[in-house]
């Protein structure tokens, strides 16, 4: 089955389209059409209108993780689509925060989206959405130390049920004015995998758990199946304005070398990767690395 992908929202955009801090993909897979993420606002839908795409006709949507810059636009999708479900991990409604700005900044899903909980189908395990398309979580991978490095936390006060995996949490607990924040286990993050004639296409929208980790997990899930392409942000920079990179140039170069050794023919990245990190990866991956931007169309 072939796949046709159009980037609807991204931090950059081609002429005539709007850009925002966020990410959204429109995916046609055979006779199916669906949405992966919806950016921060209604920008994804406005860009879709300009591209002649009716996002209201999507059969369903997939939410990669519970952050506003991927799920905020769902409010607009709910307005345009009366019945489609959103497939998300069961911890997607957690109270998530970022400390990259030096102070706790709430980055979870906005309240109007949470109010539409009846539109969500929460997944507790890996799921084949329909033949050839899977939503895969991180499983039991211990990712809290990475979260502490990235300064990605969950607020305990209103978290409700503590996300799965927190029993492994290290001592890196952040406290602010009596409030307690635990490093995120990224149990709310999932990747989307499409099966195409030339191999698997992996969407890892923010790759908080590490794009190398995500690719390894997919390889383990589909042993012996080649990877055709990887698309998504790699979370190698700070907040919306860029900010300090949580990873050193040496660590980013090592990541590029790891991806090169995985022999992935094409890698498309942007959003939370950042320009400096992109340039380092480009130096390692050469022609295998491509830039995402709103309006880009890719066919596999």
From TrEMBL:
Write out the GO MF terms: transferase activity
Q: Which InterPro entries match?
A: DHPS-like_MBL-fold, Metallo-B-lactamas, Metallo-beta-lactamase_dom, RibonucZ/Hydroxyglut_hydro
* Residues making up the signal peptide according to the UniProt record: none
Pfam family membership, one: Lactamase_B
Q: Which SUPFAM superfamilies match?
A: Metallo-hydrolase/oxidoreductase
Q: Where is the Metallo-beta-lactamase domain?
A: 21-271
State what protein this is by name.
MBL fold metallo-hydrolase
Q: Which organism is it from?
A: Candidatus Pullilachnospira stercoravium
């Amino acid at each position: 089955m072939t796949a046709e992908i159009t980037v609807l929202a991204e931090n950059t955009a081609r002429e005539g389209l709007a850009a925002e801090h966020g990410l959204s993909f429109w995916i046609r897979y055979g006779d199916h059409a669906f949405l992966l993420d919806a950016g921060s606002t209604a920008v994804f839908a406005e860009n879709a209108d300009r591209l002649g795409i009716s996002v209201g006709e999507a059969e369903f949507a997939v939410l990669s993780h519970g952050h506003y810059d991927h799920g905020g636009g769902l409010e607009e999708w709910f307005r345009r689509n009366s019945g489609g479900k959103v497939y998300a991990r069961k911890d997607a409604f957690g109270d998530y925060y970022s400390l990259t700005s030096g102070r706790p900044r709430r980055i979870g899903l906005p309240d109007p989206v949470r109010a539409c909980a009846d539109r969500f189908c929460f997944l507790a395990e890996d799921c084949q959405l329909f033949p050839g398309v899977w939503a895969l979580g991180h499983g039991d991978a211990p990712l809290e130390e990475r979260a502490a490095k990235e300064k990605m936390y969950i607020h305990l006060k209103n978290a409700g049920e503590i996300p799965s995996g927190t029993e492994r949490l290290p001592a890196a607990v952040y406290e602010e004015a009596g409030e307690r924040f635990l490093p995120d286990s990224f149990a709310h993050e999932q990747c989307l995998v499409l099966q195409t004639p030339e191999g698997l296409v992996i969407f890892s929208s923010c790759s908080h758990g590490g794009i190398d980790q995500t690719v390894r997990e997919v390889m383990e899930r589909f042993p012996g199946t080649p990877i055709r392409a990887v698309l998504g942000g790699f979370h190698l920079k700070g907040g919306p304005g860029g900010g300090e990179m949580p990873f050193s140039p040496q660590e980013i170069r090592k990541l590029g070398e790891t991806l090169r050794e995985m022999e992935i023919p094409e890698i498309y990245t942007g959003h939370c990767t950042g320009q400096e990190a992109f340039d380092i990866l480009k130096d390692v991956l050469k022609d295998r690395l491509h830039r995402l931007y709103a309006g880009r169309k890719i066919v596999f």
